[in-house]
Specification:
This protein is mostly helical. The chain has helices at residues 5-13, 20-33, 36-63.
């Protein structure tokens, strides 16, 4: 979403707050994420990402000697 992890950490710790633009953007994302078709697509993306990640680590381990 274009937000640096350090920025999110500051929000979580109460050191900083999101801008009004960021709050609106995240609110729109939350609304979209609740739609059943979006949830299903997101689930599929996460499954594929997990598979790709697992294959990467397996192949990396197989090539180590």
């Amino acid at each position: 979403m274009g937000v640096h992890p350090m920025t999110v950490s500051k929000w979580e710790r109460g050191v900083a707050v999101p801008t009004p633009y960021q709050e609106t953007y995240f609110g729109q994302f939350q609304v979209a994420a609740k739609k059943p078709d979006v949830q299903n697509e997101l689930k599929n993306v996460l499954i594929v990402a997990g598979f790709v990640g697992a294959m990467y680590f397996l192949l990396k381990a197989a090539t180590k000697k």
